[in-house]
Design goal:
Layout (H helix, E strand, L loop, with lengths): L2 H9 L1 H9 L2 H8 L4 H11 L4 H24 L1
Length: 75
């Protein structure tokens, strides 16, 4: 892997963790260093930071709160 890519990964520990967890990224970045942007997009999905994943979490929190209100409303 090129030194620039290694230095970039050293500055971004969350990306380095993904490369360690999924070794296919090491091979891909070794062959194509321009794939860093693709890795960053993958990291958003990996850490649940996409808009859809955030909306799913919000929906689950609203459902949980609604159930709590129903539970305490019956007593």
């Amino acid at each position: 892997m090129r030194k620039e890519v290694m230095d970039y990964l050293e500055q971004r520990p969350e990306l380095r963790y993904i490369v360690r967890e999924q070794p296919q990224w090491y091979r891909k970045l070794s062959r194509d260093p321009a794939a860093l942007q693709e890795l960053e997009n993958e990291s958003k999905f990996f850490y649940g930071q996409t808009f859809g994943q955030k909306m799913d979490r919000l929906h689950e929190q609203i459902q949980t709160f609604s159930r709590l209100v129903q539970l305490f409303g019956k007593q």
